Amino acid sequence: MIRRLLMLLALYAVATASPAAETARAWLDRDSLQLGETVTLNIESSESASEPDFSALDADFELLGRSSSSSVSISNGRTTSSMLWAVGLRPRREGKLTIPPLTVGKARTEAVALTVGAAPAVAAANAGDDFFLDVTADPQLVYVQQQVRVTVRFYYAVNLTDGAVEELSLPDAVVQKLGQDRSYDAERAGRRYRVMERRYAVTAQKSGSLVLPALNFRGRALSGNDPNALFFGRGRAVETRSEATTIEVKPRPAASAAGAWLPAQSLQLQIEGVTAATPARVGEPLTVTVTEIAQGLGFEQLPEIELPAMAGAEVYPDKSVTRSRESSGWVVGERSRKFAIVPKHAGKLQIPALSLDWWNVAEDAAAKAATESVTVDVAEAANHPAAAPAAAAPAVATRADLPADSGSAMFWRLAAIVGFLLWLATLTVLLLVLRRLPRRAAAAAPSVAFSPTRRSFERAVADGDAAAAAQRLLAWARSEGLRANHLGELAVQLTAPAQREAIARLQAVLYGAAGGTLPPGLAAAFAQGFSGAETVAANDAASVLPPLWGGR
Fold it and tell me: Looking at domain 131-250, which of 2.60.120.10, 3.30.930.10, 1.10.760.10, 2.60.40.740 is its CATH number?
């Protein structure tokens, strides 16, 4: 026993000590800049390793300061470690540059792209200024409700003790700050500066001229000529001001389609969850997800997603899920909505194509995003199997079939047959009487005849819990002999229209956007039990009895 325990411990130690595949990744803190500015390259390795060889970067970049850090974590008895290196880079030329793959231990990073623009022809401040503000807008000719990328940069070449750049605010536009402020180094007019960068998404609400006002910086800077500044002074008060910028806003073009006005850099319309190969069955819900993704628009500007009515199916929409994120200075709005599609008939079910008209501001032309229609094959609901065929009627022996024997033997054989037939008739009558007794008792005192599953269903209805009511209704139906794996399968077996309608309303609550509110009269629809339970239960009882005469 001890030997086996030691062997198991050894195997566990080997399993937990076996290292996972080493990985490495590389990324930049921004993907575009101007010549003279700096960017930080981050390299992360899943295992402890020596510093990567950065010599491959010398051709396109000047390597500045670098730093490294390590971390160790323990999870489920497994110890993992990682290393992170950060390297400052200053591009040597403009254009599309590439950070080549770098080897870190046994792993290798992916290549990373960087766009380097030309340095400003004229500095935003006079050469030698200690600090200045620069505000840029891109583009400066837009349509109403089209996003403008506004970038505020504060350059400073002195030590600041405190200070702040005022926030951008416009009365006739929606202003949204994007992400956190960034810091990096840049060169302007032959002087090195530290830069604080802040980005905004500005959306004009009416056509005409939109003026971005001048922004102010106020703070305090340490003076190198003041010997007491480091000990007694807070530094001298300083301030600077940017220049105002004008953006021309055009009205919605006449060539745009009717409906929602969507000026965007790009727009996608996607449908997921159902393909032509997706299995479908009557009464079983199909779930599809429709998503709108627009670059240059917030989710608030995207229209609500709707599915048209479908022949042969009920459509129950869920609540929309929305979000806006930032990507390279653009707002990316997303709106997603799920739909439960419940087929009502077997055959072909077509989910129609969807389309959305928008305006491509990059090409200044109308555009349309569309999905393809999907046709699925809907099978019949899984009904309860038909009752087993009745046992073959026993053949009555004729006198000619009886073997020649004495008269006494013949008498006793006939007496045995008659006696058995009388016993069979008595048994049949007794079974019929016993079967009808519970029904009569239930009719006389229904509160006593209720089964535990029925009581559980009624409690769920009283609590207003739609999901629990559906589960317990199915459990009650199965206890009565019905095949009921889902509500649609149960509905096709019932004969009472009120019960089918109650199930349809319950499905609407479960799969619809409202949810939570049970339809009125749900318990009352099943007060007398299931409309098809008697037939199915009788078939079940007949199918489990063995054939009487050994018949086939």
Answer: 2.60.40.740
